[in-house]
């Protein structure tokens, strides 16, 4: 599904963190009633790179640029404004436990939400990178 994935998943950690936030946003939309105006919310994240990219709205990191496009497009379509706030793992015990496969408690099947990966990633658009961009010819030559 992702052509930017390489042999080292660790170097894409910011992408996976933002993808997790996108899944959380999908869960929110799934349980939230339809609203006439934009809903604003704050999500906690323990990855500074993903938080910074979301805050700035851009990244030159392969993969993160595509996930940012999906992140913002999803928010526009579902009338959300999500601010990511960094909380270090040592103070964010739930996130720290989840990242180490230690679930705080068993989640009953009736409360689980199936994440439609293809749908979420369809919000990504092909970004023009500088090597592909068509800049106007320079003046004077």
Entry summary:
This protein is of the alpha+beta class and 141 residues long. 38% of the residues lie in helices and 10% in strands.
Could you tell me the mean pLDDT? Answer: 77
How many helical stretches?
5
How much helix, percentage-wise, in residues?
A: 25-40%
Proportion of residues in β-strands:
5-15%
Ranges where pLDDT stays below 50 over 5 or more residues in a row are 126-133
Q: What structural category characterises the helix and strand content?
A: alpha+beta
Instruction: Compute the number of strand runs.
Output: 2
Structural shape: globular
Round the Cα radius of gyration to an integer and report it: 17 Å
> Biggest sheet, strands in spatial order?
1-2
Order of helices and strands: HEHHEHH
Note the main sheet.
2 strands, parallel
Distance between the termini: 42 Å
């Amino acid at each position: 599904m992702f052509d930017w994935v390489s042999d080292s998943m660790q170097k894409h950690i910011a992408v996976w963190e933002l993808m997790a936030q996108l899944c959380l946003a999908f869960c929110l939309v799934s349980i939230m009633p339809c609203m006439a105006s934009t809903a604003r919310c704050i999500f906690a994240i323990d990855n500074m790179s993903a938080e910074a990219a979301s805050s700035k709205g851009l990244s030159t990191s392969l993969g993160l640029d595509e996930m940012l496009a999906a992140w913002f497009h999803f928010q526009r379509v579902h009338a959300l404004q999500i601010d990511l706030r960094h909380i270090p793992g040592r103070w964010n015990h739930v996130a720290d436990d989840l990242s180490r496969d230690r679930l705080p408690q068993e989640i009953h099947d009736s409360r689980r939400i199936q994440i439609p990966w293809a749908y979420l990633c369809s919000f990504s658009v092909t970004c023009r990178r500088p090597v592909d961009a068509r800049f106007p010819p320079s003046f004077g030559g």
